[in-house]
Specification:
The complex is a heterodimer. Chain A is built from three helices and 17 strands. By secondary structure, chain A is mostly beta strands. Chain A has two domains: 1-32, no CATH class; 64-253. In chain A, the strands form four sheets. In chain A, strands 4, 8, 9, 11, 12, 15 and 17 form a seven-stranded mixed β-sheet that branches. The longest helix of chain A is centred in the N-terminal third of the chain and has 14 residues, at 37-50. Chain A is globular. Chain A starts with a strand and ends with a strand. Chain B has a domain at 205-336. Helix content of chain B is 46%, strand content 8%. In chain B, α1 crosses α5 and α11 runs antiparallel to α12. Chain B is globular and about 70 Å long. The chains are: A mainly beta, B alpha/beta. Chains A and B meet through β1, β2, α1, β8 and β15 of A and β1, β4, α1, α4 and α8 of B.
Chain lengths: 254, 336
């Protein structure tokens, strides 16, 4: 006896829910209709095909997730208009990988840092970079990028010199409000396929930014936002949706 | 009750571990989900949560469920965009370790033709050809293609739905393109990509064909990922659309990934760069907007084997229905 089912996302990013609707088959009894001949033949062929392969094994569960430290200072709950908020990220090229706990020597790796600020006291939240003056040293490859839909981020690359990766800049708030800053780093685009000597093949790489040594960074302010993306969705998985991207919330007062 | 990941649109295979469960390589993924009682069966919910151990059954089922979703969503998106739906009865292999895929379309080509295309491609790589012949012999390769090779392979080594979906949409976009261009064209795609050991570069044999096919699939992959996950996605900074806008070519002058989106969009043009290569970010000359996915796809017929032929076809077929000039389209293509 078979029914048709569809698969719906139970949640957009972490699990899948099946329910009876219109696709695919569910057998309402365990059935053992597997034909044994093909798997046996196939298995034999696989042994022939792969028996000459080298036996070297490279194991790494999940992605490589490199941990990049950063600091937002002063780490206040509330800033005043015309205060200076400094962001810096300086770390040696021996970089810790979170999932294995190993440290890898990543020489002149392409890490792409980026900064987004959202003003989250309205629904929907609005792009917040326009409410800040940015002060970026000339030595830094970091600039304002505007996309076709109007989104704006600061993006660029870390400066790599004397075995150190360096990024530093400052923000000066101009307008009161509740803000959420993201100080993330990606390997996309041209860092996507880069490699390092110990890298297992076919394993993807990511970066996480640990801001202020992993403090809570006022994450509770997200609940003050009327926008459900901030007051609900991010808070469901705070590590991957807030802390991994170097999240920090603050208020700007007059 | 068991859940079998199979429909008229496609069936999914994939194994856990390495050779310990080798029979799983050949059979459709099935989860014996437990016993149920009663006479009415509606809305039976089974959740497949994200995996923690790579190669586990949890990983296998999550990958199958997510890729299956992608296949059904692609059918819906294809209808909405007016592009060819993927062929029915796709055989899809899910790899637990990979983050790449391919669309061999084996069941829609003869196995001997597919073998020939692969071997012809390998002729460009004498060492590999010799090695494969030494290890397996042509007979085994042909037999393997006959009984086991899938139409599509999708790597499921991701830990976020939108990332796996982007790859799945990319590979399924190839199957949709295959419906339009046919078997002979696709054999040339296989030969070119095997010979180039992937996407190759601007000097690879038949590089234009690779550029057309892969840029289109990547455009569709990222566009559909953005459509499905416009806000709630795993990209910490931006969206799949902004990521597409940040991309020029795969490698210098080869596989113009951002081109198709630039034919559609208007507004500010951000800096973009090649995925492989050392060229610094730059801004393409994009004064073009208003082309549609339907128009672009309709131009990608079997006669189109280079981006330049694509440009001419687009101008001839669809420029008149937009507000763009020939010069603007030429300038955009020349930026890539």
């Amino acid at each position: 006896m078979t029914y048709s089912i569809a698969i719906d996302d139970f949640h957009p990013l972490d699990s899948i829910k099946w329910r009876l609707l219109s696709y695919d088959t569910v057998s309402i009894k365990n059935t053992y209709s597997m034909k044994y001949g093909m798997p046996i033949l196939f298995g034999a062929l696989c042994i022939i095909l792969f028996s000459a392969c080298p036996g070297g094994k490279c194991e790494h569960d999940g992605f490589y997730e490199f941990n990049l430290p950063a600091t937002l200072s002063p780490a206040l709950n509330t800033f005043r208009i015309r205060d200076t908020i400094s962001i810096s990220s300086v770390f040696p090229d021996d970089v810790r990988e979170v999932n294995s706990g190993n440290t890898y020597h990543l020489e002149d790796f392409k890490f792409y840092p980026g900064t987004s600020i959202m003003k989250i006291d309205s629904n929907p939240a609005v792009d917040g970079l326009q409410f800040f003056e940015t002060l970026i040293p000339e030595t830094q490859d970091y600039y304002l990028q505007t996309y076709s839909n109007g989104d704006q981020f600061l993006i660029g690359e870390y400066q790599y010199k004397n075995n150190l990766y360096t990024l530093s800049f400052s923000l000066i708030p101009k307008t009161p409000g509740l803000y959420y800053i993201i100080q993330a780093t990606t390997l996309y685009p041209s860092g996507k396929w880069q490699t390092f000597p110990e890298k297992c093949p076919h394993i993807a790489m990511e970066a996480r930014v640990t801001l202020n040594e992993g403090n809570d960074n006022n994450i509770h302010y997200l609940s003050l936002s009327p926008d459900t993306y901030y007051n609900d969705w991010i808070l469901q998985k705070p590590d991957v949706r807030f802390h991994k991207g170097g999240g920090y919330c603050f208020i700007v007062a007059e | 009750m068991s859940v079998k990941v199979e429909s008229e649109r496609g069936r999914f295979r994939g194994a856990v571990q390495n050779f310990a469960n080798v029979w799983e390589w050949a059979i459709t993924i099935k989860d014996n989900a437990g016993a149920i009682a009663g006479s009415v069966f509606n809305n039976i919910a089974i959740n497949y949560h994200i995996w923690t151990a790579q190669g586990s059954q949890a990983h296998r089922f999550w990958g199958a469920a997510t890729a299956n979703n992608a296949l059904h969503e692609f059918h819906d998106f294809a209808v909405a965009d007016g592009i060819a739906s993927p062929p029915l009865h796709l055989s899809i292999w899910l790899s637990r370790t990979r983050i790449i895929g391919f669309a061999l379309m084996k069941n829609f080509l003869s196995a001997s033709a597919a073998t020939d295309a692969i071997l012809n491609g390998l002729l460009g790589s004498a060492f590999l050809a010799s090695l494969l012949d030494l290890i397996t012999g042509g007979f085994v390769q042909s037999t393997w293609l006959n009984i086991a090779a899938p139409d599509v392979m999708i790597g499921t080594g991701f830990q976020q739905s939108d990332q796996l979906k982007q790859l799945a949409y990319h590979e399924i976009a190839h199957t949709s393109h295959f419906v339009q261009v046919g078997s002979l064209y696709w054999l040339d795609v296989i030969e070119a990509e095997v010979g180039a050991n992937g996407w190759g570069n601007e000097n690879s044999d038949d590089a234009g064909r690779i550029a057309v096919c892969e840029s289109w699939a990547e455009h569709i992959g990222m566009t559909y990922a953005h459509r499905r996950y416009p806000v709630f996605n795993s990209i910490l900074l931006g969206t799949w659309e902004t990521r597409l806008e940040e991309t020029t070519n795969d490698s210098p002058n080869h596989v113009p990934i951002g081109l198709h989106h630039d034919l559609i969009d208007s507004g500010s043009e951000p800096e973009s760069e090649d995925i492989r290569g050392d060229a610094p970010p730059s801004t393409v000359n994009d004064q073009v907007s208003g082309f549609t996915i339907n128009q672009m796809f309709s131009a990608l017929t079997s006669e189109i084997t280079t981006p330049d032929e694509y440009r001419i076809r687009l101008i001839n077929l669809h420029l008149g229905s937009t507000s763009n000039t020939t010069q603007q389209v030429n300038d955009l293509f020349n930026s890539y």
